[in-house]
Design brief:
Length: 415
């Protein structure tokens, strides 16, 4: 039972929710994960993209069904708790918070790398501070800014697609769909690209901020996912047609390198600005999502209860947002962007594994259980196909969270 002072205001419609979801997805994968995925999969990049999309679709459908029943902030933290028990809800919430906190750091560092490479960490910290202040001012202000960011990023990506496909250097033979790095490479690429699709989780965590959540959330999730998949596919095909899988995997700034190879170097600064804006859009939505789950977990005392308050004027979980912003700022000052992506993917895949397991309990018919079954299997396989360092770090942090949960339960039982 939440207190009157901890309830959020319902102000967002379907369009707002879709745009916030796109703010998390479009940009993150294109500018941060596409190159590493190509390096892992080689000619199997498009297969990896398709596999990531299938798993993301299953997760989206499971999340939509659950969100219609439990329209509260917290997403799978709430679903796991209600359908599977307190521990599984906690595990989902912990996975989301740590995984998405790493995502925030990765996006902040992407901003720094494109705006001022020599001072990437300093710029990243400044971006975190600025967007935490925007979020503190209220979700509607954030939704408006996200609309602008998504429009700018889509315009830049459309320019990249047109330039690359219209270039005389474009060659359909470079697409060469296969599996040059083997099944393991395709699976690892899918796990890395899943990082790009995971933004629709932000929509599920808007349960207390959207109008008519039982109708709005199930509509917004597949809409945002479908738009993101269309954009990702077009950009991947266009860039591959110019650089090929090898060139894309070795590129430091793949889209900028692609337009340069296509013979339009004057577009490179525009692409760099677009990359920075895209990363800012992702960071904006990610901080909102992590704060929402932190609020829900604090309400249930899995995190400090002081984080459960909502600002009386701005109607935002202000203490949770400030805490998340502080942690992300520290990470942005110290971590590496590629490691952050792998760690984030592991945590978010664990989160969605719980979501699919929760959706499995909603019906006994084989048709109702087919989607969550595929989603659950896909999440587990992709999580353990990630680079060994990412798997070890992710598993270690999840184990730490489990240990903290057990210690808390033992302490409560002794009171």
């Amino acid at each position: 039972m939440t207190s009157p002072g901890s309830e959020l205001r319902r102000t967002l419609g379907v369009g707002d929710a879709v745009v916030i979801g796109l703010g998390s997805m479009v940009g993150a994968g294109i500018f941060a994960a596409l190159g590493p995925a190509a390096h892992a999969a080689g000619s199997g990049l498009l297969l990896g993209l398709a596999l990531a999309a299938v798993v993301a679709y299953c997760n989206a459908m499971s999340s939509a069904r659950l969100a219609a029943l439990y329209p509260a902030s917290g997403g799978t933290y709430v679903y796991g708790r209600e359908r599977l028990g307190d521990f599984w809800g906690y595990l989902a919430g912990w996975s989301f918070v740590v995984g998405k906190t790493a995502s925030c750091a990765a996006m902040a560092l992407t901003v720094g790398a494109y705006v001022w490479p020599e001072q990437a960490h300093a710029v990243a910290v400044a971006a975190v501070v600025a967007l935490t202040a925007v979020n503190y001012g209220g979700v509607q202000k954030s939704a408006w800014l996200t609309r602008v960011i998504v429009a700018v990023v889509l315009a830049v990506l459309a320019s990249v697609v047109v330039v690359c496909l219209g270039s005389g250097d474009s060659d359909a033979g470079r697409l060469d769909i296969g599996a040059s790095e083997g099944l393991g490479g395709v699976l690892q690429a899918a796990g890395l690209l899943f990082f790009a699709f995971a933004g629709y989780a932000r929509i599920a965590t808007l349960g207390e901020e959207v109008r008519d959540p039982a109708r709005t959330i199930p509509r917004a999730i597949p809409l945002a996912l479908g738009i993101a998949l269309a954009v990702y596919s077009c950009v991947a095909v266009a860039v591959l047609s110019v650089l090929g899988a090898g060139g894309l995997g070795d590129a430091g700034a793949p889209l900028a390198d692609a337009v340069r190879a296509a013979g339009v170097p004057e577009l490179v600064p525009v692409v760099r600005v677009g990359a920075a804006v895209a990363a800012l859009g992702s960071l904006l939505a990610l901080i909102l999502g992590v704060s929402g789950t932190t609020l829900a977990m604090a309400r249930d005392r899995h995190l400090p209860g002081a984080l459960a308050t909502v600002h009386p004027r701005f109607q935002v979980p202000h203490r949770a947002e400030l805490a998340v912003g502080a942690v992300v700022a520290v990470l942005a000052a110290t971590v590496d962007v590629r490691g952050a992506i792998g760690f984030s993917s592991f945590g978010v895949l664990a989160y969605y594994a719980v979501a699919n397991a929760s959706a499995w309990t909603l019906g006994s018919a084989s048709a109702a259980r087919g989607v969550p079954a595929v989603g659950l299997l896909g999440c587990v396989v992709l999580a353990f196909a990630l680079p060994v360092v990412s798997v070890a770090a992710g598993a270690g942090v999840l184990a730490l969270g489990v240990a903290a949960y057990g210690a808390r339960r033992r302490w409560a039982a002794g009171q």
